[in-house]
Design brief:
- The structure is a single chain.
- By secondary structure, the chain is mainly alpha-helical.
- It has two helices and two strands; from the N terminus they run H-H-E-E.
- A two-stranded antiparallel ribbon has the order 1-2.
- Strand 1 and strand 2 form a beta hairpin.
- Helix 1 packs across helix 2.
- The chain is elongated, with a radius of gyration of 20 Å.
Length: 98
């Protein structure tokens, strides 16, 4: 079903609802659905920094702009220099969130 078809269907049930509000709700529902089902998968590549453990995965280029913001739900695997990094079973002894 296309966005236009969904919009027309919703208008039948809620005839006074604005098209802009319907579009907003459909976008929100779509994001919620993809987040819950983890239906979308992707691969991201970014530059690392020596002695830095934590990275903002939703703004990998670090410019804080709104146009490239991601909504990463879960990281399944991390590779570095063609090697898979093993997942930590326990948290590190020293906490560093810089």
């Amino acid at each position: 079903m296309t966005h236009t078809e969904l919009n027309a269907y919703i208008k039948k049930v809620f005839p006074d609802e604005l098209d802009s509000d319907i579009a907003l709700h459909l976008t929100e529902a779509s994001r919620d659905f993809t987040s819950r089902t983890k239906i979308l998968k992707g691969v991201e590549t970014f530059n690392t920094v020596v002695n830095q453990r934590y990275y903002d995965l939703n703004d990998l280029d670090g410019d804080d702009s709104e146009t490239d913001q991601r909504h990463i739900v879960e990281v399944n695997k991390v590779d570095y220099d063609n090697y898979t990094i093993q997942r930590l079973v326990t948290p590190p002894d020293e906490v560093d969130i810089t």
